Amino acid sequence: MAEPTLKIERDDDRTTVHVAGEIDLASAPALERRVLEAIAGGARAVTLDMSEVSFMDSTGLRSVLTIREAAVAAGGSLVLSRPSEPVRRLLDVSGLADRIQTQA
Question: Span 5-103: which CATH code?
Answer without folding.
Answer: 3.30.750.24
